[in-house]
Amino acid sequence: MRFAVALLCLLGIASIIGTVLQQGQPVANYLVKFGPFWTEIFGFLGLFDVYASGWFVVIMLFLVLSTGLCLWRNIPPFMREMKSYRIKAGRQSLAAMRHSTVLAGRLTPEIAVRYLDVQGFSSKTVVREDGSLLVAAKKGAMNKWGYICAHAAIIVICLGGLIDSNILLKAGMLSGHIVPDNDSLYAKDFKPESTLGRNNISFRGNVDIREGQGADVVFLNADKGMLVQDLPFTVDLKKFHIDFYDTGMPKDFASDLVVTDKATGEKIEQTIRVNHPLTLHGITIYQASFADGGSDLKFKAWNLAGNSRTPTAMDAVSMRQFPFEMGGRKYQLEFDQFTAMNVEDMSEPSEKKAQNFQTAINDVRAVRQDKKFTNIGPSIIYRLRDQAGQAVEYKNYMLPVKQEEDYFFITGTREGLEQQYRWLRLPADAQGKPDTFMALRERINDESARKRIIEAATRGTPADIRDRFNQAAENTLSIFAQGGYLALNDFMAQNIPQAERAKMQDYFYQILYGAMNAALEDTISHYRLPAWPQDEARNRFLFHSMDAYTGLTVYPAPVLLQLEGYKEVRSSGLQMTKSPGASLVYVGSLLLVLGTVFMFYIREKRAWLLFDDGEIRFAMSSSRNERDLQKEFPEHTQRLEQLAKDLNHD
């Protein structure tokens, strides 16, 4: 029994782990959450599939064996005890009991038996060899069934767990008859030894189905590979529905399914949603998740090496990979999930309107920790992978997002999943487009245009300083065009003494702002963009453009993609389980409830009346809660004596 209790404690701890730690997820999800070191440790310990791990199964086997032996040993004496009236109780043993007394008055055995019957006792009368007569009574003998039911419940629940723990699958993998596949992407590519037949007694697998498509298999995680489980039916997804809260978080999602029986061809149409599954052929289909099913996407693509304001239209499909070539270098463009609605941390931007050159440098490099969550519309995640296999991940939002007083087109970049995104913010113009910024970028990268802009801007300066001022402004704008604020900062660090640097920073910044303002005016005029009078909004746009230009000079990609349109296609994540052991678990749970009721709410009590030589000895005992008898025993004694008095009056 102590061994069984110890095993129960171990199972309890393991069940806590299996509840807290999400089970059966792809290894990549655990790598992101725990890192490679702890993922390897947890995987070795079987914590990602606790209930099917070898050590958990072994504990359940030992618990079944231990509890089974306990029942085997104790059921016979329990049954004998429940049937026994303990008629061998002698005069001395009854007198030695804690609750024992000699009744006053004369009482016949027949009256005593009738009284005990009324009080719920069953009794047995025995005449002994010495002439004495014993009335032995009992009630609450069902209390012993509590112990039997509780122990049987543990066995039944563990047997149900063993059936659903894929113990046969584990045995097949150990024997080599079943081999998980580590390479195949599609079900048709899995080898026979990696495919499970329809006779598999239990499994739990997942499959994602796009709208308008179907599946007749599910995929099972097995060690470091996958197995394919064949199904006796085909599941087609007609339509996926999803509702959102006002915050943009999912409220409810459901799938309209058409299930076709492979043997009979019978079709069943039903909508499943969370907590409302469909069961067919002993297999239960749950609505588990949803995802992007491969949406059609439209992009604007700017070649960052060419400095052109005119983007190239590009079509793509999410969840797909495409070869990509730019500047003579080959890349792999890997599109991840498209999300039509996002609730994101849109904190107050770190780049603020700079008062001087140094604050502009600090603002561009600053990182804020503030958080402000809001729905900001569609987004796409993609990765650009070079020939060496190194990839940078990008997250682009389709709609301009308002931060402070202005709108920005936002793209995040990061080089590892453990990193936070670094955000590039392109300012939207008065028409809510990035066109003005891109035109300004093209203009200041044109050397001849820069010269004409500076000449036009410096015509009003005094003649004696015009040439020097013209040259300073042209050089400042040229350096900024090469690398933004960072290039200017490096130039000053290399050419200006430390003592004069603070004064020269403000000087350079004033020259740069004047030159950029002239460049913006020239850009609007040259490209015939909508007129934009000098006002506060235009000044902020100019400051944001200078920050964005600096960000683009260190942008880790040869091309900038801006999501422009989409046609969403969703996929439904279904989990299919075949768990015949679940019925045993339900039966075991019922037995556990019955056992608890029998043990804690049914009291076993015994009573004896010994008639010997004109003396009547009354005694009672209880297997538990002697405190109850402290009240009941005097009451029974008083009632029996009152019966004797009432039935023997003159």
From TrEMBL:
The chain crosses the membrane at residues 52-72, 145-163, 584-602. It comes from the Bacteria. Pfam families: ResB (PF05140). Keywords: Cytochrome c-type biogenesis, Membrane, Transmembrane, Transmembrane helix. Residues 1-633 form the ResB-like domain. Its main location: membrane. The keyword Membrane applies. It is a multi-pass membrane protein. InterPro entries: Cyt_c_bgen_Ccs1/CcsB/ResB, ResB-like_domain. The keyword Transmembrane helix applies. It is found in: Membrane. PANTHER family: CYTOCHROME C BIOGENESIS PROTEIN CCS1, CHLOROPLASTIC. This is Cytochrome c biogenesis protein ResB.
